[in-house]
Specification:
Elements (H helix, E strand, L loop, with lengths): L2 E6 L4 H16 L3 E6 L33 E6 L1 H11 L6 E5 L9 E2 L3 H9 L4 E5 L2 E7 L2 E8 L2 E5 L7 E7 L5 E5 L1 E5 L7 H4 L11 E7 L9 E4 L4 E5 L5 E5 L3 E5 L4 E6 L4 E5 L5 H9 L16
Parallel strand pairs: 1-2, 1-3, 3-4, 4-5
Antiparallel strand pairs: 6-19, 7-8, 7-18, 9-12, 9-16, 10-11, 10-15, 12-13, 13-14, 15-18, 16-17
């Protein structure tokens, strides 16, 4: 019996309703269906009484979601997609992402296109696009304290974000660099259109095997975003006497004390997106972010997009 999964944003009634409709429809067609709420991939925010809650990366996968699952359908916005990949990426399950949110930058299709999208998915009429994820780990000496998968970005800053911090950043075997800024962002190409874009970083196409380090409001005219190979591991140490806050994918994280070390490397688990059409990244940039649109008045005889 073929197996399919459904991951939905339990906070949105429309996502819950559609998840049940899909479950009923596919079950009637002979599919084994497993459903899970996206909250299972939520990391949880650090708290004063619980600054670190270590949940191993491979323990977030919901019951029934395994290597035998053909694919899973995600119902929600970008946050739901990020949470879903933290849950299923270690099992190699490709995701058909359906936008029930707002921006939907990471989603492939919409609710009104869902029946056709599901028919194509169950018939195997799609491509799989792999995107790099990061493994974020927090260490104290030789003890692993915390870890998470990351599709967009890792951010470390002071709590609250009101004053400058000092960081020592080591990329691969290169000499460490000192950064004085409100915080730093380490982003994948997928995350280059998220927080790092707002902080002045460049847009990096998903097919580029690179990471970027972006200082947040740096106290230097020479501090700019740095793009480098994703084969280079990164180590970030705090040079501040007080604790900092680390947030992964804008979702949750942990406190970083001065004696902790953050280690980041490209994950062995890629995010697998189901694509119903050949990926057209520039079109997405145009539709979602207005990239490349005319910025000056044109004669009426010129056809505008």
């Amino acid at each position: 019996m073929p197996k399919v999964g459904i991951i939905y944003n339990e906070g949105k009634p429309v996502a819950c309703r559609i998840a049940q409709e899909i479950d009923d429809k596919l079950t009637a067609q002979g599919w084994e269906v497993h459903s899970a709420a996206a909250k299972g991939g939520i990391l949880g925010y650090c708290q004063s009484d619980r600054p670190i809650s270590h949940i191993p990366i491979d323990s977030l996968c919901p019951p029934g979601f395994d290597e035998d699952m053909s694919f899973a359908i995600v119902l929600g916005g970008d946050g739901t997609v990020l949470a879903a990949f933290r849950q299923v990426a270690p099992r190699g399950i490709p995701l058909l992402t359906v936008n029930t949110g707002h921006m939907g930058f990471l989603t492939e299709t919409y609710i009104n296109q869902l029946p056709e999208a599901i028919e194509r998915a169950i018939s195997g009429d799609y491509q799989v696009e792999e995107r790099a994820m990061l493994t974020i780990q927090v260490w104290e000496s030789n003890t692993l304290l915390w870890e998470a998968l990351c599709l967009n970005e890792m951010v470390i800053h002071r709590e609250p974000l009101t004053s400058m911090c000092h960081f020592e950043v080591t990329v691969g075997r290169h000499a460490p660099v000192d950064i004085a800024a409100d915080g730093v962002i380490l982003s994948t190409p997928t995350g280059s259109t998220a927080y790092s874009l707002s902080a002045g970083g460049p847009v990096v196409a998903p097919g580029v095997d690179a990471l970027q380090l972006v200082p947040i409001c740096p106290h230097s005219l020479a501090s700019r975003a740095l793009v480098f190979s994703d084969t280079e591991p990164v180590v970030i140490n705090s040079a501040n006497p007080n604790r900092l806050v680390m947030v992964v994918d804008g979702n949750g994280g942990c406190y970083i004390r001065p004696e902790f070390s953050i280690r980041i490397a490209r994950s062995q688990y890629p995010a697998k997106f189901i694509r119903l059409q050949p990926p057209e990244y520039f079109k997405i940039l145009r539709e979602k972010l207005g990239w490349g649109l005319p910025h000056i008045a044109k004669p009426t005889s010129v056809e505008l997009p």
